[in-house]
Amino acid sequence: MRYLKAFIIGLLALVSVVFVIENIEVLRQTIQLRLNLYFAKIETTPLEVWVLTILSFALGAALVLIYFVYDHIRHRQVIRQLRQNMEIMEMELKRAGVPVEAAPAGTEAHPEYTAK
């Protein structure tokens, strides 16, 4: 799997280089972006297309990174809450006199999680 991932990344890099070489004239053209609102007019300095492409990619990558960090933090909170719930349930089972290590009726305990 590691070699397949390296091969795919290398292939994408090669395709990117070929794309840039074949379109160098178009990528060197300059454009100016404008936003005309009723109360404000915003214009950028003239940018080459390749700069705009890289900035767009970087903005997209930053937004994806922010989303995944948020998602990771949210999942960690859910896991923490579920672990607290498990601890509370184990204490209730101990108070009721039920052995905590026993699997629920009708299910088989996974060998990885059973005590050795």
Quick take:
This protein has one domain (2-96).
Average pLDDT works out at: 86
- Largest sheet composition: 2 strands, antiparallel
Total of helices: 3
Low-pLDDT ranges:
none
Q: Distance N terminus to C terminus? A: 33 Å
How many domains in all?
Answer: 1
Please characterize this protein's 3D structure:
With 116 residues, the chain is mostly helical. The chain has one domain. It is built from 3 helices and 4 strands; from the N terminus they run ααββββα. The strands form 2 sheets. The protein has a two-stranded antiparallel ribbon with strand order 1-4. Strands 2-3 form a two-stranded antiparallel sheet. The mean pLDDT is 86.
Structural descriptors:
3 helices, 116 residues, two-stranded antiparallel ribbon
Topology at a glance:
Layout: H1 2-22, H2 24-27, E1 30-31, E2 34-36, E3 41-43, E4 47-48, H3 49-96
Antiparallel strand pairs: 1-4, 2-3
